[in-house]
Amino acid sequence: MNRICQLFGIQYPVIQGGMVWCSGWRLASAVSNAGGLGLIGAGSMHPEVLREHIRKCQSTTDKPFGVNVPLMYPEIDALMNILVEEGVKIVFTSAGNPKTWTGFLKGHGIKVAHVVSSSKFAVKCEQAGVDAIVAEGFEAGGHNGREETTTLCLIPAVRRATTLPLIAAGGIGTGNAMLATFALGAEGVQIGTRFALTEESSAHENFKQLCLNLNEGDTKLLLKKLSPTRLVKGEFTTAVEEAEARGASAEEMKELLGKGRSKKGIFEGNLQEGELEIGQVASLFREMQTVSEVMKEIMEDFRKGMEKIQLAL
User: Fold this and answer.
1) Contact in structure between 4 and 178 (CB atoms under 8 Å)
2) Average of per-residue pLDDT across 79-93
3) Which of 203, 262, 272, 298 has the fewest Cβ atoms nearer than 10 Å?
4) Which of 117, 61, 51 is nearest to 87 (CA)?
């Protein structure tokens, strides 16, 4: 049996990325009900808002779901206690040292996966005692690793470095891409962009429609002095590029970024002033679908792809 399915108790080895302003209870429960693993994105929620989303998810699915927690979250202690109090069974952590909270979570019977951008950090994850690793290439939307390693290079490197169950992420939005990562040693995939653009995503319609009309090259990795972030090109990214070109300091970049800019763009739909985070793979998609349609299409393409490869041998 597939180790990712076994570990999380799911039908398909497809995990929905826990994305800020996109991954509320509605999206997470839809993915779980469709046979994957839905994740609530805690990064854009105050602790009590997260509690509400967990309870709503519990009331709308009887299937496993989890919560994604960026470890740099400012109220991390309160958030971790809520996860335990509300009986969350699966937590994906990112943007921080897995040693800090893995022991606490596992001590409460919670399965832990951690997101990495290099094989060096994958080894540290294994040492920290995580149950699975998400290896994310820099094609991904939002915050990325400084290494800028592509998914097709990262997966075999991480597979060589660890024996833990391995989930591929970054630039994966189709069954064929899923199949490619499996050939390189992955046992599951984490998909963000494609699920961010579904009907159940909590992202604003303006943001979804913009991303469904992107072409190749319409995103760029910026903000490298702060935290490398893949953004849709536009007014805000032009200002960022100009600041970076003149050698602006990290403090100047923080001031330019300001507060709440990703909420303004992704959740409120302000396409001029917002920080619009999306992955490169967005350019492959043109129509908004339901989560159920997306999951069905991914798994059908995955199976057809396997059949084609077998026929070609």
Assistant:
1) no
2) 98
3) 272
4) 51
Residue 84 to residue 72: CA distance in whole angstroms: 19
* Domain interval for residue 219: 204-280
User: Do the domain assignments include residue 2?
Assistant: no
Give me the count of residues in the chain.
313
Listed residue (182, 142, 133) closest to 161, CA to CA: 133
- For residue 1, pLDDT over 90 is answered with no
Distance between CA 214 and CA 184 in Å, rounded? 28
Does one domain contain both 227 and 132?
no
CATH at residue 78: 3.20.20.70
User: Does 179 fall in a domain?
Assistant: yes
Torsion of CA 44, 50, 55, 61, to 10 degrees: 30
4 falls within a domain = no
pLDDT band at 259 (very low <50, low <70, confident <90, very high): confident
pTM attached to this predicted model: 0.97
